Amino acid sequence: SLVVLFGATAGAYGAKLGSDERELILLVWQVVDLHSKKVGTLHKSLVKADNLDLSDQCREVSGLTPEGLGKAEPLDRVLQQFSQLVSSDLKVLGRSSYTLCSDGQLLIRQVLHPETSKKNFLLSDCFYSFYDLRKEFHTCYPSSAAVKDQTIKTMAEYLGLGTDEAEEDFGVWQVKTMVAIIFSMLSEGCNHVFTEPETVKYKYETGPCAPCMSRAVWCFPKCSKSETVDSETVIRARGLPWQSSDQDIARFFKGLNIAKGGVALCLNSQGRRNGEALVRFVNSEQRDLALERHKHHMGSRYIEVYKATGEEFLKIAGGTSNEVAQFLSKENQVIIRMRGLPFTATQEDVLGFLGPECPVTGGKEGLLFVKYPDGRPTGDAFVLFSCEEYAQNALKKHKEILGKRYIELFRSTAAEVQQVLNRYMSTPLIPTLPTPIIPVIPPPYTIATGSIRDCVRLRGLPYTAGIDDILEFMGDATGDIKPHGVHMVLNQQGRPSGDAFIQMKSADKAFMVAQKCHKKMMKDRYVEVFQCSGEEMNFVLMGGTLNRSGLSPPPCKLPCLSPPAYAAFQTAAVIPAEAAALYQPQALLPTTRTPQASAAAPPTVTYYPAQAAQLYMNYTAYYPSPPVSPTTVGYIAAPPGAVAAAATATHTPILPQPGALVRMQGLPYNTGMKEILSFFQGYQYAPDDYNGLIQLSDQARSVLQAPKEWVCL
Predict the structure, then answer these.
(1) Is the N or the C terminus of the chain less surrounded, counting Cβ atoms within 10 Å?
(2) Tell me: the pLDDT tens digits for 214-245?
(3) What structural domains and CATH numbers belong to the chain?
(4) What is the pTM of this model?
């Protein structure tokens, strides 16, 4: 038997059903006995939605009103009535089992499953298997229109069924016509047989997907990097809560079939989740349905859904590590990530920390420590648990103490395991030193400060807008922009935030630009243009907020850089000119020299003129975008006189030897010297006596005679 099912939501209708997250308001169904070609009673049931505000299209097509829906039953009660009435009709027809049949995929996959998942109640088993009437019709009549172009009306017209939609209530005509189409397909000329129903996965399957034929182990979490993934099956979800797990993402896409091991959470450069995930579906049809969930909500956050490529998925999820493959060889395991472990922690220590209430699958075999290529521990580990209960018990130990450190525990995925291992194992043993970290801004192109309103702020830029687009937007006023005066503001992920600042040659020019360009269109968006001061511009570039409520300071708390109070926000950190000599380019990027050449060469000194002592530090959440902001930076060559003076000096400089200087990135904003000393506990520091190098004031010496937040010796 079939149960022909039709439904409607309070929003979009037809091909966009379910794309706007609106709730179900109507269900109509009828039982059809395929053997006797008899039908049961036709049932129509209104559904009371939480939000009774109906769209114009819904009102026009369905003729329903909020008043009528207000008297209906909620969805859970309607589904109970559906099961009872279907069972009753089957008994009358002498049948016991049935399969649903709907007009396309949308009602089941895009409406019923997502809505019941959000409302936290389970659908009965019958909603996990159904026939798509459009596909069955095209199989029976191959010369008909493509499946995606089929509708109930076009199928009826193809068969020449003379039914008038206006004669019946909304929903009743659709079900009656679908039943007539089914009977036509069962006629002697066609003898169609319903054999292969569509299926909806009950839950997301973790673990391996396919065996790697060249090895005796499985390739995890999805496949080997040498394999290929169909780009028509992959999407990128953006804006996820950072604590989201693969199961949370699968729940967001409830009703759609995700490939086994097909959720790959993306990590940032510090190994933490960045709010994005790549999801691989079983086929392109499921992927296309997933794209329709763009800006649907996960809790209070809307999630952006975009197309992605198979190469991107493999870059995040693929790998060839035998160790990881063996670790993940047990299927249907819950994976927990541990972070912050002491470097001396052993397997016994971790098992003792977890305790008997959350036994690890396989004991020591269920632990995977993450290490650098040279074997040093990173402080991360992954643990396998055989059931959700054990995993929940483990998560209760979040931030409990092991040794002298608190341990963080999070849900993880097979893709994250591989991604973390790939990241650490690809880290070079001797990393290349970055470019000098304390650049000097050349005097001709300093970023403006002060209260003169000679700048403009552009708000609401398209995210794809570049410097050329802004210059075209400015038109004739481009000639009045200061050199290197365009500053695009990026967010914490390094993407355009939609804001930009432009330094004009005078306050009058800034006023004219604001008047001329305010709410002028750029591409498909209008852009707001406001006159502002250099102080306000620097305020936002350094991470503060500028709105109608006034100024709010940026989230920087670095003790060596931040002023004690924000009486007027400082945009640059001033370091004494003597201290600047400590950070020579040669110390950061040492060159290889022969012993003879080194002995004969005079001491190298980097010269910093007085006007170049003002240093611009980008150490907060927002950064001006290269290449036009900040302006070109570099070191200033020392004049011959400075070199001669250094060569005749009686003191002996104490500079770090090549390879003895390290740079720390990704420090929390509130990190202090104590935390840095604790981080390097057990390592020997270089001598901290800088008195022989330069004359320092007591205040400068107290700053320099300790490891720095940005440089450690």
Answers:
(1) C
(2) 332 333 344 555 567 889 999 999 999 887 88
(3) 2-199 (3.30.420.10), 231-317 (3.30.70.330), 322-425 (3.30.70.330), 455-542 (3.30.70.330)
(4) 0.54
